[in-house]
Design a protein that fits this description.
The complex is a heterodimer. Helix content of chain A is about 15%, strand content about 30%. By secondary structure, chain A is an alpha/beta fold. By secondary structure, chain B is mainly β. The chains are: A alpha/beta, B mainly beta.
């Protein structure tokens, strides 16, 4: 098994445009312009960067355009280095792996939408606004707060000119979020994306609102496939002489793979038996629908199994 | 044959086409699992029977009827959707798919990957009716509407 599994969507950087102070607007497409996996309005993707890093960015294009993922990346001087790599090392024509899109800004029809955005946090609302306009709905207002020059002006200014966006330069006046969103009203939703301070202010300003009419955009980690009640444990690969800590909810199979030990895998859901591994010590938690009671005494399907105690020794 | 689909790389949506070109011993031209392309989610685990995959349209109807799940033919991610062909009975047998000759190697098993790609909870509902894996003995072009016949 020399070949590695494909774990991301292969995209090519088709365009990079300067889109405001320290902001680059990147357009990613399939190498053959094939349709990309669908996204909800304002969804986000993980972008795998050269060097093994990955960072999460909101899509700024509407999901009705299914051949492009557009993201806007602000260079964060004090960041962890992801944005700097995208700014300095990624060029048109480069290949980037991305994840399936997750999350998004809920934009149900027949609803008035109040979007509150801080700085580069405006990106998912361009996607949401685009989706609404595509459906012929114009009952929304994007309130964009920024410092100095507006981010993504080529998208923001046309919305302002149509009366669909209000711009606030916080160097001259800081808007009051409570005034922007007003009291809760039936058929109205308020959503916010921005820096932590703004999310907190939005949270405070929307205390009287029903939860179902609010959305605070936080990047959602990929869902855990494994039982969330699972506990951490120590995994020992006996023949390889490797001991590794497995955090709660982490897949045993992933933990084994990270040690560089290969176990065949196929369904990932505990029914095919490809990843059956011998157990030498410890009490496993079986979540499969494959092993017989006898087999359960001395083996696990690593794709779904956990550990009932603190330590599990595998015959690997 | 009711629907024909392919995708050039892992994760990408399947695209419906009017015809597929089957190459004996290799796979479906332009599809991610064609030998030499190796662009599929499972390509790192080579398998002879993954040259072409089939699926029963009746399973889509049953998912709707029994589970209220709308699954489109593009979403099951197999190449060929057939009607009135009991795929389970074809394991280890040869049969004609239009002008091409296939040999079924095993039943397909569902995978968690399909829930990730479709965003639908269908893993359990697809157990034992997730399609058929085949190798291509004689290639050719197959078209929607072509018959499936015993060899």
């Amino acid at each position: 098994m020399g070949r590695k599994a494909i774990t991301s969507i292969e995209t090519v950087v088709r365009r990079i445009e300067q889109a405001g102070p320290g902001i680059k607007h990147l357009t990613l497409e399939d190498p053959d312009e094939w349709e990309l996996p669908p996204a909800r309005p304002g969804a986000h993707i993980d972008v795998h960067l050269p060097g093994g890093l990955w960072r999460t960015y909101s899509l700024c294009n509407g999901p009705q355009v299914n051949t492009r993922y557009e993201i806007a990346v602000k260079r964060e001087a004090a960041g962890r280095g992801g944005s700097a790599i995208l700014h300095d090392n990624v060029e048109v024509g480069h290949t980037l792996g991305v994840s399936l899109p997750r999350g998004g800004i809920p934009v149900p029809s027949g609803t008035r939408h109040i979007f509150v955005a801080g700085g580069i946090g405006v990106t998912p609302f361009f996607s949401a606004a685009s989706a609404l306009l595509h459906r012929g709905e114009r009952d929304f207002m994007l309130h964009a707060v920024f410092r100095g020059e507006p981010p993504l002006a080529e998208l923001l200014i046309p919305l302002r000119d149509q009366g669909l966006a209000t711009l606030y330069d916080s160097t001259t006046s800081r808007p009051d979020i409570r005034t922007i969103i007003g009291p809760p009203a039936p058929g109205t939703r308020a959503s916010c994306c921005g820096p932590a301070g703004m999310l907190e202010a939005f949270d405070n300003a929307s205390r009287d609102w029903p939860e179902a009419q609010l959305h605070i955009e936080r990047f959602v980690p990929p869902p855990l496939a494994i039982d969330p009640q699972a506990k951490p444990y120590t995994l020992v690969l006996s023949r390889s002489g490797i001991t590794v800590s497995v955090p709660a909810g982490r897949s045993m199979l992933d933990a084994i793979a990270e040690c560089g030990v290969e176990v065949p895998t196929s369904c990932g859901g505990g029914i095919c038996g490809a990843c059956k591994v011998g157990v030498l010590e410890g009490k496993p938690l079986h979540h499969d629908r494959f092993l017989t009671p006898d087999e359960r005494e001395h083996s696990v399907l690593a794709c779904v199994a956990g550990c009932a105690g603190g330590r599990l020794v595998l015959d690997l | 044959m009711r629907h024909l689909h392919l995708a050039p790389r892992a994760f990408l949506p399947m695209r419906e086409v009017a015809e597929l070109t089957l190459v004996a011993g290799i796979g479906v031209e332009g599809d991610r699992y064609m030998l030499g392309r190796e662009a599929g989610y499972y390509s790192h685990l080579p398998e002879e029977g993954r040259q072409i995959t089939l699926f029963e349209i009746e399973t889509l109807w049953a998912l709707k009827r029994d589970h209220g799940i709308e699954l489109a033919a593009a979403e099951h991610r197999r190449n060929v959707t057939v009607e009135g062909v009991p795929l389970t009975h074809l394991v280890a047998r040869r049969f004609w798919l239009g002008e091409t000759l296939l040999e079924a190697t095993r039943l397909s098993i569902p995978c968690r990957h399909i829930e990730e790609v479709t965003g639908k909870t269908i893993f359990d509902a697809l157990i034992n009716r997730s399609g058929l894996n085949c190798k291509i003995l004689q290639g050719g072009i197959v078209r929607t509407g072509d018959p499936v016949n015993p060899a």
